[in-house]
Amino acid sequence: MNILTLETTCDETAAAIITDRLEAAASVVASQDALHRRFGGVVPEIASRAHLERILPVIDEVLHRAGLSLDEIDAVAVANTPGLAGSLLVGLVAAKTLCLVKGIPLVAVNHLQAHIYACRLAAETDVFPCVGLIVSGGHTSLYHCDDPLSFELLGSTIDDAAGEAFDKVATMLGLPYPGGPAIQRAAESGNPRAYRFPRPLLDDEDRLDFSFSGLKTAVRYQIVGPGKTDFAKIKLDRRQVADLAAGFQEAVVDCLLGKAMLALKQTGRKILCVGGGVAANARLRKRLADEAQQRNIQLHIAPLQLCTDNAVMGAIAVERLRAGLTENLDLDISPGVVR
Q1: Which CATH class is domain 124-306?
Q2: Spatial separation of the C-alpha atoms in residues 190 and 290, rounded to whole Å
Q3: What are 205-217's pLDDT values in tens digits?
Q4: Which of 323, 329, 293 is nearest to 113 (CA)?
Q5: Full-model pTM
């Protein structure tokens, strides 16, 4: 069986061909980073228009790379939740059209569940039940995952997502978009102890939520002082940028690591799966690996190519098909997080 999977939840137009043996025959991702760089973040209207321009060429290219025609596709899977409304609609309309024309099943994919399923793909073995940590530009959440399709929300950010905070702090430091990779590069030569930033909610063992807005504000105050916003007048030298980036990054990692370990303790699970764009951060990956080894935790982090948005992780559609879960063509998008 060949499944065409589509991913248009935010600013990546992606398609993949997945077999029922969980093999990726081909994968294509069209990035929009260059379109959004001047704004320091994703502009929803620009994202949706770019998806419109790219969705058909991306589908055509992935079929070409797989050496298949549309007649050889047995089902189409598409992420319909959560994400940007306009972006989601482009992928869903494309998927519905293909299913209607070819008379093949439509499969809905939960984007967040798919991020955790990327760990299952990389492990090439079952990783469930587990605690799932999703860290991206739009989401920072902990889930108790009984199986690939059963997720219970344990906690999430109450304000900014971790990736969003990376982008905003990068702008403050005069670093390019996307902020995550830029801050990681700057932090490599910095001292994470030069500035002591807060770790919001980290000491609250009754909550598994995250908060990064206050941390972001603390960085701003360190740069320009309370109540001021004119960064143009502030000239930071390379050492200051490196130290600020390192201190901020370490604070974020401390929060993510602490809450993930608390979730494992509360659920009694010994397997942690981590996905999402921020999961590509080298410091986070190292700290998680060190902590998992010390605590005898089985750790699975999505490989770098499956951290950022992609359609290969849409292979979770195979699990839905095995469970007999397909959709009618009146399927709608759900931009918010389904709890």
Answers
A1: alpha beta
A2: 21
A3: 999 999 999 999 9
A4: 323
A5: 0.94
